[in-house]
Design goal:
The chain is an alpha/beta fold. The chain has one domain: Zn peptidases (Aminopeptidase). The chain is built from 10 helices and 12 strands. The strands form 3 sheets. The chain has an 8-stranded mixed beta sheet with strand order 3-4-7-5-8-11-9-10. A hairpin with a 3-residue loop joins strand 1 and strand 2. The longest helix has 18 residues. It is globular and about 50 Å long.
Length: 345
């Protein structure tokens, strides 16, 4: 192979690796580090809790008024009948929150995904997503952890990041109908992202981030678990970047050094199915997940019910600072990778 062929291959390799989303290697300077740390520190555990309690309360008309009052808390999306009153109330709340933050607001698809966007000022075609599902299942099931917790994280991340400008675009998405088979996120990817030819550099999915620990084992380590796929190197590296962001900017958050490899059964799978880097952040992992938190999809999954009982046998309960730390880490990673430029204030 002659010298010119070698130069051509080297140039092609450099071009591909500079564009390939698995790299996630934004150059860091002390000034950038301080800016990222500053924006991450703006995440408020109290504001996060306010969002979580509001989302958990949907279905009683406390936000939207009498026409959204079901007489109990519920955010179910019916495959045949469409959204419940509580689901629609949550949709309204999220729209108003994004609008109040000055984000570019849109609704997408038959399942009514709610999207807020900060459009990048230099490379807007590069898009980062942080998402969570806002629906739950039928009956009096508030879904305080599943998934008012993740939705609150997306709202708090949006609140903080909306005060800044970035080189790349950042989207905040509340997906619907996750409990029915990831319908909202699959619709978004297949009927919006793919047809539009969008370049999603990385997606962070928050699902069940509020109740770490185990009812079965009082010595269970309190940490965040990450789920990605080793068969998709870009997603694996993207998850590792989250873990590194915690080490760099949110040392109070312990992230399990062992990534969970496989299918998550949450909205990140919809992106991975189409080759888009994505990972899940969750409070506990398989195989002990069901035993650690028996209240998922249950009447008791609420801040004022048994799921949030510090006197339980294992001592597990809602931990708002833990969830806020997960949100801080996501904010730091997005500020780093989308490249924070300045504040709007």
């Amino acid at each position: 192979m002659d010298r010119y062929a070698n130069l051509f291959i080297l140039s092609l390799f450099t071009l591909l690796t500079s564009c390939y989303p698995e790299a996630h290697r934004q150059e860091s300077t002390p000034l950038n580090d301080q800016a990222i740390r500053t924006v991450a520190d703006e995440v408020s555990s109290q504001q996060y809790q306010d969002y979580q309690l509001d989302i958990e309360s949907m279905g009683q008309g406390l936000y939207g008024g009498q026409k959204y009052d079901m007489g109990y808390r519920n955010r179910d999306f019916h495959l045949e009948n469409g959204p419940s009153k509580g689901n629609s109330e949550a949709c309204l709340y999220i729209q108003d929150a994004f609008r109040g933050m000055g984000l570019k607001l849109s609704l997408q698809g038959e399942y009514i995904n709610v999207i807020g966007e900060i459009t990048g000022t230099i490379s807007p075609e590069n898009i980062y997503i942080i998402g969570a599902h806002y629906d739950h299942i039928g009956g009096d099931r508030p879904g305080g952890d599943d998934n008012a917790s993740g939705t609150a994280g997306v709202l708090e991340a949006a609140r903080v990041l909306s005060g800044y400008q970035f080189e790349s675009s950042i989207r905040f998405i509340a997906f619907n109908a996750e409990e029915d088979g990831l319908l909202g996120s699959r619709d978004y990817v297949k009927n919006h992202v793919i047809p539009e030819g969008e370049r999603i550099v990385g997606m962070i999915n928050l699902d069940l981030i509020l109740r770490p620990g185990s009812d079965r084992d009082s010595l269970y380590i309190i940490d965040a678990e990450l789920e990605a796929r080793s068969s998709h190197q870009a997603s694996w590296n993207w998850a590792l970047a989250f873990r590194q962001a915690a080490l760099d900017y949110v040392p109070s958050l312990v992230v399990d050094e062992n990534l969970i490899d496989g299918v998550s059964s949450s909205d990140n799978d919809s992106f991975l199915e189409q080759g888009i880097p994505a990972f899940l952040v969750i409070e506990n992992s398989d195989p002990d997940w069901g035993e650690a938190n028996p209240y998922v999809h249950h009447y008791e999954d609420a801040s004022d019910r048994r799921a949030n009982n510090p006197d339980s046998s294992g001592g597990a309960s809602y931990n708002y600072e833990f969830a806020a730390d997960i949100t801080r880490t996501a904010v730091a990673l997005l500020a780093q990778e989308a490249v924070i430029l300045s504040g709007d204030q």
